[in-house]
Design brief:
alpha+beta; Ubiquitin-like (UB roll); four-stranded mixed beta sheet; 15 helices; about 40% strand
Length: about 800
């Protein structure tokens, strides 16, 4: 019940009152309130009860009869009472009531509050909070804004006309308005609140002095004799104005961040005494500014000696072999970080998982030299007790355990952190998880559990898209993929099917693709099981169709293949593959001649007497026109030790194969031999562990017997020899010198890939070489850009390559630019 005046009468006699602001002038009260809140937080009493000791002692044990609010017109009682902790029936507490008053005054609608204690019936007391409401904002005025509209500025304010006047929000609004101007380049803007108008009329008036709009026109680096300017530019975020791309904003906060970033960069490069200063040079009308970073580089420190402290398990020679620090080398932050990691990895491989390594610097008497001192706390050696997997709501435990088993991280053995890291990278490369962490857990004296926390990603994807490349032209895409398929997990209800819980969890891969295109149309359904019957056997099943216009004919295929293989513990594998295909060769190119037929004397070509048409497709193509049936059995042996499936950075792949065509019947009988290998090696890694990877490849294939033209080998294009057209390297035949394929193919190539931006954009240099049965040994070199774009939970790679043949045959077809590009939507 709201009471506008103090009640008096026989049972109500005013005992005492206290105000949160008892004596200070009204204009001081906000400052006093802020100080009071801080003191209250420190446990310091703010206000004392004003009664005399006898009266105060007389009410301390009184029971509260009623708690009410007075003086409020616009603010509901309930909103104020929600801040009050004193309740009827409880014992009177001056401390609690004072806290209640402070909570009430925090409300923006309340300007001041006075509480008082009044006598009530039955020797009880009433608590009355008399509030003074804050006024409402009568008017909101922005004065002086010429270049930014009032409506845009008002949107930045956190209050409006007609709302309770909150001085904190009003002061904050001045800063918000200034920030709007700063983002537009008004560096010298000033925004002030008209305090007199605010206190007298509750009108908020911002006085804006915009000043000139300023842009950074130059960024200079002065004093950098040993580090190039181009590298320093990449460390700062203050840049000159450039239309559309750069605003050229000047910010003191950003300049300070840039100054510290430059100092850190110099220290990371070994300049331990470097200092950087930022200064501004304005033009006359202050519309342009040149930012100068003045640098005192100092001396570049080198390593005088490498020492170890605290190492008892490993001797210094063993530890020195693991680090890349050498005396006489510059002590960069990157080398320090890698050295610490290398020492920890050495201990981690032997189960010393809690080893602490800190590289400290001891400055010597010689200028510019420091000793690198590794301070090591070895701690205890631990065995792996259990592998505990968490976070896999869909994926079965065994799918995750397989990769840890593969790298030797198994219960009973040493807790090898290096093996755990390699297994983690392998898991992440499968595309089933967004994140994988391995953490030791437990309190045992010599054992620790490994807690594997995984964050599952979406593995079932339906894609509709379009792609284009120089080999196949424009193609559409309809693709259904489940990278975590489980053929045995059938739905028990319709909800299982539509919620995505069916057919998920076993790490199998099921994919159905259809690519209709201008030159090529492909379709495929494939299934892969990595561990058949939970044994180290794998199964691949493929059904496919293919239609492509070749140089002088139309090739259409439909068929299937089944592969079964066994994987050994040392990453070797052996597999066997059965293939069955129907190959249709049709629509051979012809040439309609208007001249008399007798002018053509080639007996090797087919003529049509009715239309005087000459079939210009090579004889090798004419021989296989129509339907051709193929069967084959292939036996393969190989090894795959790469660290991840997608874009490997370490390891190698080796494969050898013999395919016997005609093993199960068909119209052709010949053998095809293949052998190859690819080596991946990280040649450079930055401090964020982005890797520059060198890859070298050698591949050879040979046909024994007489193979049809559509089973022979061709080179050129992406995935083969860049700089040459797709199938542009081949023996030739026919009237138009069309490619007819080679009985053998040898290719040797190398490529260096370097990250340019995060893990998304890569630059590369390559050299592709090879030979077929005719012509010289071809060589091409080039460069390219690779984009790896995550779209719809899938990595979509894009390649743009420029190749330049150095050694070629006169009949080869060249292609300077080759690309493959895919979009999903």
């Amino acid at each position: 019940m709201r009471n506008k005046a103090s009640q008096t009468g026989p049972n109500h006699t005013e005992m005492n009152q206290s105000s949160v602001f008892p004596v200070w002038p009204r204009r001081w009260r906000p400052a006093v309130w802020i100080c009071g809140v801080l003191l209250w937080g420190w446990g310091i009493p703010l206000f004392s009860y004003a009664a005399d000791p006898v009266t105060k002692a007389g009410i301390q044990d009184k029971i509260i009869h009623q708690v009410r609010v007075e003086g409020n017109d616009s603010v509901a009682d309930s909103a104020i009472m929600a801040q009050v902790r004193s309740r009827p029936g409880s014992v009177f507490s001056e401390t609690l009531i004072s806290q209640d008053a402070r909570r009430i005054i925090i409300l923006p609608e309340i300007y001041d509050v006075i509480w008082k204690v009044m006598a009530a019936a039955d020797d009880q007391v009433d608590i009355v909070f008399n509030v003074i409401e804050s006024p409402k904002v009568r008017e909101l005025i922005l004065a002086g804004n010429k270049h930014i509209k009032t409506a845009k500025l008002e949107k930045e304010l956190k209050f409006k006309k007609g709302e309770f006047l909150d001085r904190y929000l009003i002061n904050l609004g001045a800063d918000d308005l200034a920030e709007v101007y700063h983002k537009k380049g008004y560096y010298f803007v000033s925004v002030q609140v008209d305090r007199e108008l605010l206190e007298k009329e509750a009108t908020v008036r911002y006085v804006i002095v915009e000043g000139p709009r300023i842009r950074v026109n130059k960024v200079r680096f002065i004093g950098n004799a040993q580090l190039p300017t181009r590298k320093l530019k990449g460390k700062v975020k203050t840049h000159p104005y450039f239309p559309i791309f750069r605003k050229g904003l000047l910010s003191d906060d950003q300049l300070e961040e840039d100054r510290l970033a430059l100092m850190l960069y110099y220290q990371e490069e070994g300049f331990l005494d470097a200092r950087v200063f930022a200064q501004k040079q304005f033009n006359e009308d202050r519309s342009r500014v040149a930012v100068e970073f003045v640098i005192e580089e100092g001396i570049k420190y080198i390593i005088a000696a490498v020492r170890f402290r605290g190492n008892e398990i490993f001797d210094e020679d063993t530890l020195r072999e693991s680090v890349t620090l050498e005396t006489g080398k510059v002590l960069t932050q990157k080398r320090r970080t890698f050295a610490e990691r290398a020492v920890k990895r050495t201990y981690g491989k032997e189960g010393y998982i809690y080893t602490k390594v800190r590289l400290d610097l001891d400055f010597t008497d010689r200028e510019g030299e420091v000793d690198a001192v590794f301070n090591i706390e070895e701690n205890e050696q631990y065995l792996l007790s259990r592998l505990i997997i968490r976070g896999n709501y869909e994926t079965q435990d065994k799918v995750i355990r397989r990769d840890f088993d593969r790298h030797g991280f198994m219960p009973g053995g040493l807790y090898n952190t290096d093996s755990a890291d390699r297994a983690k990278r392998r898991l992440l490369g499968k595309g089933l998880f967004e994140d994988v962490t391995v953490t030791p857990s437990g309190q045992g004296p010599a054992e620790r559990d490994a807690v594997v926390d995984v964050t599952e990603t979406r593995t079932g994807v339906i894609l509709f898209g379009v792609g284009v490349d120089t080999n196949s032209g424009v193609m559409g895409q309809i693709s259904l993929e489940q990278r975590n398929f489980d053929i045995s997990r059938w739905p028990t209800s319709l909800s299982d099917l539509f919620s995505g819980e069916a057919f998920v969890g076993a790490g199998q891969r099921l994919r159905a693709d259809f690519y209709p295109g201008t030159r090529v149309t492909r379709g495929r359904i494939s299934f892969h099981e990595s561990y058949l019957f939970d044994q180290p056997y794998y199964l691949d099943v493929n059904l496919y169709l293919f239609r492509r216009w070749r140089e002088s004919y139309l090739e259409q295929r439909r068929g299937s293949s089944v592969s079964v293989g066994h994987r050994f513990e040392n990453d070797w594998f052996v597999d066997g593959t059965l293939r069955y295909e129907h190959v249709l060769v049709s629509d051979l190119d012809d040439y309609i001649h208007r001249s008399p037929l007798w002018e053509f004397t080639w007996d090797d070509y087919l003529f049509d007497d009715n239309y005087h048409a000459l079939i210009v497709a090579p004889p090798e193509v004419q021989e296989v026109e129509g339907t051709n049936r193929l069967t084959s059995f292939r036996l393969g042996v190989g090894q795959d030790s790469t660290d991840r499936l997608f874009m490997p950075t370490e390891g190698h792949k080796i494969n050898f194969g013999w395919e016997q065509v005609g093993a199960l019947g068909g119209e052709y009988s010949f053998a095809s031999l293949s052998a190859g290998g690819t080596l991946y090696k990280t040649v450079y890694m930055d401090i964020t562990e982005r890797r520059t990877v060198w890859a070298g490849q050698i591949r050879g294939r040979k046909i024994i017997g007489d193979a049809p033209v559509f089973e022979r080998f061709y080179a050129g294009g992406i995935g083969s020899m860049r700089g040459f057209d797709f199938r542009g390297v081949s023996p030739r035949g026919g009237l138009l010198d069309d490619p007819v394929g080679s009985d053998y193919l040898v290719q040797v190539g190398t490529e260096l890939t370097h990250p340019l931006f995060e893990e998304t954009i890569f630059g590369k240099l390559f050299c592709d070489t090879g030979m077929v049965s005719e012509g010289p040994y071809r060589v091409s070199v080039g460069f390219g850009i690779e984009f790896v774009v995550p779209q719809l939970f899938k990595m979509v790679p894009m390649h743009f390559d420029f190749g330049f043949p150095l050694i070629r045959d006169d009949m080869d077809e060249e292609e300077l630019f080759s690309f493959t590009f895919g979009l999903s939507f």
